[in-house]
């Protein structure tokens, strides 16, 4: 499925302009990006924990579940922000 703009040569395509961000918006976006990167790092670290170790220590199992919940909640928040920004 192609759009009308795809068939145009680069020099005839309509120019899309991104509105300038305020310092507050930039600060919010930077904080959100840092949160996402931290959640991604947490996800990788949790994934590398050996299952045998997690099964032996119930408190570690609780920690892993809590970490997974944080990662899921961060991803949900990220999707919500992306949807709201498109409007």
Looking at this protein, list some descriptive labels.
elongated; 87 residues; single chain; mainly alpha
Explain the overall architecture.
The model has no long low-confidence stretch (mean pLDDT 84). Helix content is 70%, strand content 0%. The chain is mostly helical and 87 residues long. α1 packs antiparallel against α3. It has one domain (21-86).
Our measurement of the CA-to-CA distance between the termini, rounded to an integer number of angstroms, reads 23 Å
DSSP summary: helix tally: 3
Computed over alpha carbons, the radius of gyration is 21 Å
Largest sheet: none
Helix content: over 70%
Topology as a string of helices (H) and strands (E): HHH
Question: What general form does the structure show?
Answer: elongated
Low-confidence segments: none
What is the typical, i.e. mean, pLDDT? 84
Structural category is mainly alpha
Oligomeric state of the chains in view? single chain
Percentage of β-strand residues: under 5%
Q: How many DSSP E strands? A: 0
Number of domains: 1
Could you outline the blueprint of secondary structure elements for this entry?
Elements lengths: L22 H26 L2 H6 L1 H29 L1
Helix pairs in contact: 1-3
